[in-house]
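Please, structure for the following, as tokens.
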Amino acid sequence: MSSTSPAIIVGLGGVTNGGKTTMCKSLEHLFSSTKSNFRVKSMHLDNYFRPNDDPHHIHLDEFHHHDWDCLEALDTEKFVHDIELNRYQCDLLLIEGFLIFNISNAKELYDLIYYFDLPYEECQRRRSSRNYDPPDPKNYFEKHVWQVHLKTKQEVLEYFNKKKLVIVNTKEESFDKIQERIVNDIEIILKEKQIQ
């Protein structure tokens, strides 16, 4: 592919602990190892969390805890800036994160859009098995994280209602099946770009 044409940008967004990071790393490995002269980069929204003492944070008095599940907790300007830089430095740019589709300046950049979703019980089970720094306070998932997820998911569904939004459920669908679908979708766009 030409170095002057922008990368294919694949968005892997959605619910916390939905399998986004695992899928992103697997796709990066797969496309890096099987495509000759094919440059792949990945970006992870978790790398853009603001430091704990950043004044942009919203503090939740009920939990004596910052709200780590809102856009204010993230340096979204740097995130969008890095997308713009990276999209001309590779052929395939994989972007994953729980709020990537809620960042207004990035919504139009994705060629493929996958929303990872889980039922409440499975999401809670996976979340409780993870260690966070700082740790989740008691009832933070039930009273805050899940409520924010429902709200931000609704925003995504409303915004992308007429666009190619694919919802995947990593509890109901196997990892391999989901990956196979994403790989096929990427390869279709790759062929279209090569024809042009």
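The helical segments are 20-34, 76-86, 120-128, 140-159, 175-195. The chain has a mean pLDDT of 92.
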